[in-house]
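Example record for the data management plan.
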Amino acid sequence: MNAWHYFVNLLPNVRNDFVTWLQGFGLPSSLIIFLDSIIGITLILLFVFPMVMLFIWMERRFIARFQLRPGPNRCGPLGLLQPVADAVKILMKELIMPAKGDRLVHWIAPVVIFFAAFMVFAVFPIGSGTRGVFADLNIGILYVVAISSLAVIGIFMAGWGSNNKYSMIGAMRGVAQLISYEVPMVLSIVGVVMIVGSLQMSEIVGKQTVPFILLQPLGFLIYFIGAITELNRSPMDMIEADSEIVAGYFTEYSGMKFAMFYLAEYINTLAVAIIVATLFLSGWKGPFLPFWFWFLLKVLAVFMFILWMRATLVRLRIDQVMAFSWKFLLPVALINVFITAAEVLAWDTWMSGWQSFPWPFIFVNFAIAAGLIVLWSRFFFKLGGGKVEVGRLRARDSQRYGADSQAPVS
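Corresponding structural encoding:
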């Protein structure tokens, strides 16, 4: 193996050499697996924490450019040490516990959310071969969906344990929002699973002769919108709507416990960027350059798109957010599943299988996606998808406050 090939697949080669070195000592296989797990966990931490710090810096600088201001530029060159300064400041804050809150539940809630965010990284493939993933489960994508759902428990515990009406409203919004958007998100993943024929994350990357965003444009949009909502990112950040419920379920949190919520949000954002890159952008695959370059490039591109949405779109109302899931995303996701099933059957029966370039379905699926979005959006508003009727609201307010009243439209 030449030096360039070793460098291109650095992580899998380092782990493989480490295991081979341990086997040379004649150690029991159980001990080798344990030590390999320790190395894998360490590598995950060394990857996640620097990426989270980079995300925090990128978001503050990127949003600042949209708002025509310089952003953080004092702590370190170009403000690169600003996340470190923020961490030091948060750690110096006092840990406040509500007098009538549930102390145990209040303490456990951020721990549940924090570790649930970390656990999903075990099955993400970031290189070829069996050593390119920490735990290459044959139900990898199902594991990701199951572990991601644990955040609902942590959010509800935070609202309940705080004994605060604003925290409880934020927690109930969070539970309703996460459960509602989990259904179309899972259905959007089903289309990818049907094409590949496997739930294994490494298998999904390996079978992408063409990025699945070209074959599943509708599935990509559904998953991405659902993920934005579950991340509590604009324009779907109703869980912590400042103008309505102070800060949502973590209103009563401060210091290190608040920092765990803050870090978990960015860790989940990193996880979503990796999932999108893995399912729809061919994962670590790319020509000429090392795999880790393509992997990081795709992850950063997805994150920048998330930031772009935050800087551009305004916050929706909670009724619009909920209606959009049940009346728009869910029916469209079901239609996408049936269309994908028909295409898989047709391609396997009449042609040479998905290993070849499925160019006919690229044009067909983009046309179907555009048509469904346009047609169903009109039907969505007829179903009462949260469309504001300003004239009706003003008429109601004029009856309530009088014809000459200047009361704002509610």
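Summary line stored alongside the record: Residues 3-356 form one domain.
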